[in-house]
Amino acid sequence: MKFIASGYLTGQPESHLVFINIIIGSVLKFFYTYFSGIEWYSLLQAALFITAFFSNLYCIIKYETQGKRFVLTLFNLSLLYFLSRFQFSYVSGFLAISAVITQLYGLTDNNKRLLALSILLMLLSSLVRFEMFFFTYPIFFMVFLFPLNKKLSFKVALIGGVLIGISFLVNQLSYKNNPDWSSYIAYNKARGSVTNNPNINIDDENIIKEFKLNIEDRTLLKNYIFTETLSEETLNKMASYGKENQVPVSQTLMSAYSNVEAYFIAIAVLLTVSLATRRFQIALAVVLHILMIYITVRYSNIVQYRILYSTLFCLLFLYVRSLNINESRTLSVSLIALTSVLLLFQIRDTSKNTYFANKKLHYIQKIESQLPEDKMYLADPTSNHYLISRKAFENPERKYIFFGWLTNFPSPIKRQSDYNSNPYKMTKYPLIISQENYDNLKPFIFNRNIYVFTNENKVILTSGKQ
């Protein structure tokens, strides 16, 4: 989305950021257009994240005292760790959580300014990622905020809901009035409803017969390549088939567990501790959170860690806040020690991430130095993680057409008259692909020039099947 906003993928700054509301997109487009040369997308995401952090900190310092203030301040510092894992879902999730925290303190103290801030945080969260806000906020509203002050909390939620509804309609109308983006969004939605859908087994004989899928269609779909057989209409029909032929409940639960195993262990421990210490509100919120995960996996798609961490943070924050820390020195010291250990692990992990990011950046630059300039390269979607970094596209002589979730993106369709949703059939364009992917997909690749990059930082030029 950074590459869309900045104009790298579109030729000029663009406000249609797919997952991010058009309002934020328009702000970014303005700054990229009139104040180019600055990475506005990253600056905005960082600013929103810091807003969430300091909103929490303000509430802690203003309303908590003694040991509890210190413990919660330390715990809030753990948010800064996620700046090293810059991703818009994290930003949206933690804005939603800050809306919960500021609203909780605001309702307790009848602080209207704090409640107004919470409404702003709700709106910002939904603008960054609409689905993420609704995955996070409603559970805490039902369990913690509404029982605290039914009338006032409902009023706050209603105002926030109206603002979110208006911004959502603005976003929908913007796409509806733009045929290119409307078509892309429809295709991308169809694509997303099939890929990683636990109810769709692409090798199931019934699906193969129903949709006339050959080995090429199925193999490439598993690698996020969409052959011409897999049109928007076909993908929608496959999604409908998945809804009508859902896997057993036990299989859905196993699918959810296997994808985020460590998280489920953590949330199960929190549920057990909450029940043992009679924190039944926390326990109820955990159960509803697990139910939300189940519904998402069963009827939509798999969940990933970045979707879940903000909820866990808020549950732990509320649990610690419920403890009588100021009355027990032992409890206070224990929590300070535990939180300090958590922060040390986060610092260690951030250091490791920085090391590997710099190593990958060096790897990318070494690969790029071996590629001929003045060419348009097709980027194999499952090799993208090798390519995407903050400096991977600084060389203006090289351009890439991306696939995967960028399949059928408006700008390459306009620029390349022979565009195909399957890059391996765009034979006149050179393909850049990892050795592993090339070995697995070689029978289906027809590009005349293929640049295969190995784990030894070498690029090998070969040709596809003729």
UniProtKB/TrEMBL annotation:
Transmembrane segments: 16-34, 40-60, 90-107, 119-146, 152-170, 260-276, 282-300, 307-324, 330-347
Keyword entries, A-Z: Membrane, Transmembrane, Transmembrane helix
The UniProt record lists the keyword Transmembrane: yes
Superkingdom of the organism of origin: Bacteria
Protein name: Glycosyltransferase RgtA/B/C/D-like domain-containing protein
The organism of origin for this protein: Chryseobacterium endalhagicum
